């Protein structure tokens, strides 16, 4: 199995959304071609050299896909384990099975993190209504009940307030295997986007400060309003996590910044084993974009410089906000990105813009 | 005929080389799709939503191409006039027929420039060996004999030195309709890359300083080593030329900087009615790339900011220099671009790199 790719080679990406699209464009910049595999056509299909529309359990299609590429990656963490294993028997899958398994299950993820000395919210597994009652007894209210698997953008979770009936709460998450997370009184949400190369090298962008609206990322600012010590701790933590997962590619670690008096402390919320919305600013505001960084890593190439060009503001365009493109195009110094989605459905990510302001 | 496009619309581009490729990627960033039309498959095919392989005089294919797009543009100035006219009857062709006709013929180009008060090298039409003798008598030696049409990267031109036999020189350009250009004792070669919108607005990048090797661009530095007055004059000149051509899109004006004692003076060498190699640095070093700027202009959208992120160095990778990709990937802070060409033929542009150094 080839470990390193060469220009002209094909990379494989599972998923046809905007992340796959931006990975494919970054690959093209470096003279690579991209094969997108997805059960549904999506915006990535418009910019790739090849695409396959097939189910994630279609072994014939998966085998042909694997044959056509030098490495397999993905734009979303919920790749079925069986799909990943089938592909990994044929081509390197980067990031690997351990990163996928860990990030797909909130319980496994938090257990792993605590196991390597990384702080998380307190948590307890919830497999039944009795578990839930015991967990709420232990962790108190408010706390958050989340399904262990397949949750994103606020899906599969419910806040357990003082008045919340626990039976209804467990129904609300479909009585699925879940975890209860104790409430973290955070001052801000931040993320570290780093990359780990095949040779174990690690490079991270400056810490991003994120604001969510309705559980969806709305706004990112870089640098984050964190102390130098907290920024260093956050970045070291991401590097430590990546090393422990024997990770190859871009990794995103979402974190809470907790302020205890003068002290700032980092609590990890979750890991995304992929490029991330809070790193979209790197397309316009950094020497190397997160997408190129990911491509470099999965190809076994040296990582690029994560240096910023200035102070960063990034804003997502959700649903009907994408219709505002004409006004946004005329804003001085604003870099607009639209994802080529045909329909501006509510809560759908239609695009984003970045503004880079020279520093100093 | 629609004047303005909307996200989701298709733009048409004639030519499948690296410039078409980078235009297609810039269009995709803005949610547009690209249809590439070319007699030969090329690197642009890997990143476009649709492509057509057909001759430039295949009217059936051209009509279908026009039907599929909202606007037609091109990556090279030698689009046959008949092709442009056929397409222009169906869809807006931007830049338009006047820009093409002017830039395709060195005699027409210099006559146009002098006519609007822009200095060029002295020149004379050469249609016969007798014309050539008379022209050399008038303009002296050294001077340069160039075919009126289809010359680029030093093709179709010969230097008339003291010892050059004129009969052989005229043979060397195939006895084609040509012009003789008087020698300009320039200090440096510079270019202005500007864009003119459908509304007549004009925006230019800072003046680029260019070094050629073997008649092919090797190296661009921004800002150019020119006086503030000369830079302003050069930029004004490009805006004036674009306005006189009723131009829509990115225009490149290649110029000589002549030093007369303390004075710096601009002499225009030629116009390229398109994005240009000396503007490739804008992909990494400017708020808006020349490719996005071109797409914005041809779509009837507002122009973006041409602000630089720092001091720029860009170097082309010609022929076997492209094989050096692995070493270049590991240079700190260097942005590498490879064009996805399979074979590193001599004099072939395989890629480029840009380095952006923070200023001040």
Q: Helix tally of chain A? A: 11
Q: Identify the CATH class of the largest domain in chain A.
A: Alpha Beta
The radius of gyration of chain A is 20 Å
Euclidean distance between termini CA atoms of chain A: 48 Å
Could you say how many structural domains of chain A there are in total?
A: 3
Helical residue percent band of chain A: 25-40%
Q: What letter string, H or E per element, gives the SSE order of chain A?
A: EHEEHEHHHEHEEHEEEEEHEEHHEHEE
Assigned CATH architecture of the largest domain in chain A: 2-Layer Sandwich
Mean pLDDT over the residues of chain A? 96
CATH-defined topology of the largest domain in chain A: D-amino Acid Aminotransferase, Chain A, domain 1
The CATH superfamily of the largest domain in chain A bears the name ATP-grasp fold, B domain
Q: Which structural class fits the helix and strand makeup of chain A? A: alpha+beta
The percentage of residues in β strands of chain A lies in 25-35%
Oligomer: homodimer
Overall form of chain A: globular
Beta strands of chain A, count: 17
Largest sheet of chain A: 9 strands, antiparallel
């Amino acid at each position: 199995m080839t470990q390193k790719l060469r220009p002209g080679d094909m990379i494989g990406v599972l998923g046809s959304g905007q992340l796959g699209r931006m990975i494919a464009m970054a690959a093209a910049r470096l003279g690579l071609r991209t094969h997108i595999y997805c059960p549904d056509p999506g915006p990535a299909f418009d910019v790739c050299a090849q695409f396959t529309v097939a189910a994630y359990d279609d072994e014939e299609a998966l085998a042909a896909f694997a044959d056509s590429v030098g490495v397999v990656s993905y734009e979303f963490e919920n790749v079925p384990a069986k799909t990943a294993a089938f592909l990994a028997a044929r081509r390197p899958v980067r990031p690997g099975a351990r990163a996928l398994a860990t990030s797909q299950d909130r319980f496994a993820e938090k257990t792993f993190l605590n196991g390597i000395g990384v702080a998380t919210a307190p948590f307890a597994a919830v497999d039944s209504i009795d578990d839930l009652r015991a967990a709420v007894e232990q962790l108190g209210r408010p706390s958050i009940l989340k399904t262990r698997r397949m949750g994103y953008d606020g899906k599969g979770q419910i806040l357990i307030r003082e008045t919340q009936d626990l039976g209804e709460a467990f129904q609300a998450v479909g009585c699925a295997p879940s975890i209860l997370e104790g409430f973290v009184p955070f001052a801000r949400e931040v993320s570290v986007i780093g990359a780990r190369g095949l040779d174990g090298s690690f490079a991270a962008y400056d810490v991003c400060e994120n604001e969510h609206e309705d559980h969806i990322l709305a706004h990112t600012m870089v640098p984050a309003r964190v102390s130098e010590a907290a920024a260093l701790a956050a970045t070291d933590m991401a590097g430590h996590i990546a090393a422990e997962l024997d990770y190859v590619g871009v990794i995103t670690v979402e974190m809470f910044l907790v302020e205890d008096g003068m002290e700032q402390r980092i609590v990890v919320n979750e890991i995304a084993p992929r490029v991330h919305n809070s790193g979209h600013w790197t397309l316009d505001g950094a020497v190397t974009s997160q997408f190129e960084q990911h491509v470099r890593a999965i190809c076994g190439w040296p990582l690029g410089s994560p240096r910023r060009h200035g102070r960063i503001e990034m804003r997502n365009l959700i649903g009907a906000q994408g219709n505002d493109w004409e006004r946004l195009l005329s804003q001085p110094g604003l870099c607009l990105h639209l994802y080529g989605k045909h329909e501006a459905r509510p809560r759908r990510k239609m695009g984003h813009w970045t503004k880079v302001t020279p520093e100093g």
